[in-house]
Amino acid sequence: MKRTAIILLFLLVLTSLAVAEAVNEASQYWVIEHYEIKAVMNDDGVLSVEEKITVNFHGQYHGILRTLPISYDIRKIKCSAPFAVEIEEKELVIRIGDADTLVTGVVEYLLTYELDPKARNEFIYTVPGTWSVDVHDLKFSLTIPKDRYYGCAMVIEDLHPAGKTFETAVDSKGNLVVRGTAELIPAYGHIELVLR
């Protein structure tokens, strides 16, 4: 009887530890609370991009990964946090954060880069990229010089965002400006702006 009680107590402790570990793992997640993108196409067709990414880490993390397609020439990458760049399969991966430092809570990252479509007939810009987490409160603008958009068609392919708005306008310089917002883009969802 005493041996059975010890075995049951041992099993109860093991179960409690397993449940505590599962709860701890479940609380380790992060979400993008705000994402603002300003992209301006230069006269030579190169896109200058500024991204403000506000992340809320629930748990301790080293940072985030931002991926971009390597089908375009990506250059002049700068970030408000330490970063490293590597190529994995068909993507350029920007590892934002420090491998020796853990962050938690709300962290804002500012990322800038240039993206050259290499004189293609079709240019696809994915907003906000593809993330493995939900993106909340997205705001974006894409400005195209008047000499570049004349005669081109733009298609907005809407892949799963909720609470969205899109508008196009011509600014005082005659440039086309596409603006959009989305309250929520679920993990792996995005919007594609296609210029043909």
How is this structure best described in words?
The chain is mainly β. 15% of the residues lie in helices and 59% in strands. The chain has a single domain (30-195), classed as Immunoglobulin-like (Sandwich). The protein has helices at residues 2-26, 146-149; strands at residues 29-41, 47-61, 63-69, 73-79, 83-88, 91-97, 103-116, 123-127, 135-144, 154-159, 162-170, 176-185, 190-195. Strand 5 (83-88) and strand 6 form a beta hairpin. The longest helix has 25 residues, at 2-26.
Which key terms come to mind for this protein?
196 residues, three-stranded antiparallel beta sheet, 2 helices, seven-stranded mixed beta sheet, mainly beta, Immunoglobulin-like
List the helices and strands and how they pair.
Elements: H1 2-26, E1 29-41, E2 47-61, E3 63-69, E4 73-79, E5 83-88, E6 91-97, E7 103-116, E8 123-127, E9 135-144, H2 146-149, E10 154-159, E11 162-170, E12 176-185, E13 190-195
Parallel strand pairs: 1-9
Antiparallel strand pairs: 1-2, 2-7, 3-6, 4-7, 5-6, 8-13, 9-12, 10-13, 11-12
